[in-house]
Structures are given as structure tokens and as C-alpha cells.
Amino acid sequence: MPAMDNRLVSSLALGAFLIGCTPSDVPPSHGASLAVPPPPASVVDPVAAPPSTVTQPPVATAAPEATVLAAVKAAMSNDFQSYLALVHAEERANADMIHQIERYAWSRFAKQAKWYLDPAGNVVVDRSKPEGDSVMLYMHDFHTQGRLPPPMRLRLEHGQWRIVTNSL
Q1: What is the pLDDT of residues 10-65, one digit of tens each?
Q2: Phi-psi category of 137—alpha, beta or left, where left has phi over 0 and alpha has psi -120 to 50?
């Protein structure tokens, strides 16, 4: 068998390095040597935190559905300030953002909030899509038959789920 091309050997060595393998983890193929070169300077991060100081992602203190239910109750009570308290701080950072929320998302949501409660007064999630520290919830609409479930994106803020976008 012919020896492997040097470019392929270099690619395999770099690939092994990038996935955290050592030379002993990768068996040589067809007699080729897989010496792993030192990482390129652009890959080494001199300010990377040592493993002992790596923090865990934030942990929620309640399910995201609890935030949705609180938002529905605020909308049914026509209490914009309570709803706004459930919106992520980055989404309500200034007066213009708050005005946009009130004028668009809130005005629609306040009219339609009751559509998302089942007869027992709970919200029903048709499906969810977690994405790191956020989650997209697709809520069941009890008012409109055959409607695709509208989404609400929530993101963790200090251990609490907060609304980022609301299409309900």
C-alpha cells in the first residue's frame, strides 16, 4: 500500500488535536505516522480560564411554562406592567423597546391570551425546542382549530425564564 499523502496526515493530526485526541488515541493508518504537531498559536487561548473556574450554565428555578401562564394571567387582567416584568431585561432596555412591546406584542397578546388556556386554566405546550439558555415553546391554541402552534421564546435571566419574543 502506498504511504499516505503528507497533507492527509497533517489533516488527520489537526483533526485529532481539535477533537481532543492524543497521538496514542489515533492508530496510524497504512503505516503513516500521526505525530500531532503543537497547536497553532491562533488556536491556543492564553486567557482561557482554567478548568476549575469554568461556571455551569444558569439553572432555572421554575419551568418556562410557569412564565407563560403568568404572562397569560397578566394579559387577561390587562396588567401590562406585570407582563413587562416577565420580559427579558435585554428586550426592555429602553423606552422605545417598551413602546414597541406594548404597541405590537402586548396589544395582540392581551386580546388573544385566553385562547391558550385549557378548561382547567393551564397552558399547553405542543412542543418545545431548547437552545442553550433559551427555549422556544409552541403553545396550543384552543380557540382556532387547525392553527399551527404559535411560538414564544424564553431565555434564562438570573435563574428565571423571561420572554424574549411572543407570537401568541
Answers
A1: 443 434 444 444 444 444 444 444 444 454 554 444 455 444 444 444 555 689 99
A2: beta
Query: Phi-psi region for residue 31, left (φ > 0), alpha (ψ -120 to 50) or beta?
Result: left
Q: How far apart are CA 120 and CA 59, in angstroms?
A: 29
Mind listing the domains of the chain with CATH numbers? 6-51 (no CATH), 64-166 (3.10.450)
The gap from C-alpha 60 to its chain's centroid, in whole angstroms, comes to 13
Q: What CA–CA distances, in Å, run from 62 to 21, 66, 82, 159?
A: 39, 7, 17, 8
Contacts of 37 (CB under 8 A, 6+ apart): 10, 13, 14, 17
Report yes or no on whether pTM surpasses 0.85: no
| Cα–Cα nearest to 37, from 47, 27, 22, 50 | 22
Non-local CB neighbours of 147 within 8 Å, separated by 6+ positions? 141
